[in-house]
Amino acid sequence: MTPSSAAGDLGLRERKKRARTDAIVDAAQRLVLERGLDAVTVEEIAEAAQISPRTFFNYFESKDDAVLGQGSFELSAETREAFAAGGPHGRLVADLEVLVRALLGAFAGTGQHSAERVLEILQLEPRLLGRHFAWFERHKTQVVALFERRHEAAPLPADPEMCAMVVFVLTRTAMDDWGRTGHEGDVGDHVPRVVGQLAAILTS
Predict the structure, then answer these.
(1) Which terminal Cβ of the chain has fewer Cβ within 10 Å, N or C?
(2) Three-state secondary-structure class, residue 4
(3) Spatial contact of 71 and 110, defined as CB atoms under 8 Å apart
(4) With bands split at pLDDT 50, 70 and 90, how would you rate the model's confidence at 109?
(5) Within 114-183, where are the H helices?
(6) What per-residue confidence (pLDDT) applies to 3?
(7) Which pLDDT tens digit goes with each residue over 40-53?
């Protein structure tokens, strides 16, 4: 298999993964909005998404996470090591773009689901707020640790936790920007634009 065909296979697998993630989240949200959280089971979500309950747990830890569109994400070892070592470009802003693009890819498409829909569910089921905050804190800790490692190789201009929060702001803003275009193209293509907007704010 040539490198180009391997990359093509990887891209196809990623698109399939995103499509299945979207189907699970769409089914979970639709059922919960129709019936309420307690009246919906993982088995019903899986059936609506045309997967097995076992497959469901390959994508989400719980029914609550699926309803909120909160899958687990894992950056590749190559991305983590390059960033921690001060790369891949050696300039923080450029490297932040790479990291945000990688995070958007690792989220496996959950950004397609509008903030308005999630907010509607949170209003109906406020107990999900705790799950949402716990999920965010767990992943924020991973990104903070990555910045702490980078700081040892290339001193940061700000506290690692603040840098991590900037990453999440950029990630969410890119998702929102993508949503405003009707989810055309790849969400990662919106990263340079939102990074430029942040830079403009800080230098104005």
Answers:
(1) C
(2) helix
(3) yes
(4) very low
(5) 115-124, 128-153, 160-180
(6) 46
(7) 999 999 999 999 99
Tokens 């949200």: give the residue: 29
Nearest residue to 173 via CA among 111, 117, 120: 111
Calpha distance 55→92 (Å, rounded): 38
d(CA 78, CA 47): 36
CB 64 within 8 A of CB 42: no
Report pTM. 0.71
Which pair of structure tokens corresponds to residue 19? 């499509």
Q: Compute the distance between CA of residue 153 and CA of residue 203 in angstroms, rounded to an integer.
A: 26
Q: How many CB atoms lie within 10 A of CB 87?
A: 17
* C-alpha span between 128 and 42 (Å, rounded): 16
